[in-house]
Protein: DUF2116 family Zn-ribbon domain-containing protein
Organism: Algoriphagus jejuensis
Amino acid sequence: MNQEERLCLNCGKTIHGRIDKKFCDDSCRNTFNNRQNATNVNLIRNINNSLKKNRNILESLIPENETLAKSTREKMSRQGFNFRYFTHTYQNKKGNHYHYCYDFGYLELEGDWFLIVKGKGL
């Protein structure tokens, strides 16, 4: 019975053992899979960091013991707020669309003003 030599998908060493084995050891398997998933993991990590930063900026704009505040687009952008990323939207009975970053949201008003809210729309 002449068996074809199988090589590790990560390092290229000869594989011994089961016929369906693809890697010579766990280290090679982990390294290969981590390399394959690195692009997706980095993308998700960067988006999550933007969402957390947005949430923290919204939280900082609301005074302590308050649930509402107003801010301008310019002020939010200066602090690093990224309007492309939010976790969900909420439409109230009046038809207003709020964008949320977890438990803090914002409603676009006239003239580049935003209403910042805490905890509604969840």
Observations:
- The beta strands are 68-72, 88-91, 97-101, 104-108, 113-118.
- The first helix runs from residue 26 to 61.
- The radius of gyration is 25 Å.
- The chain is about 35% helix and 20% strand.
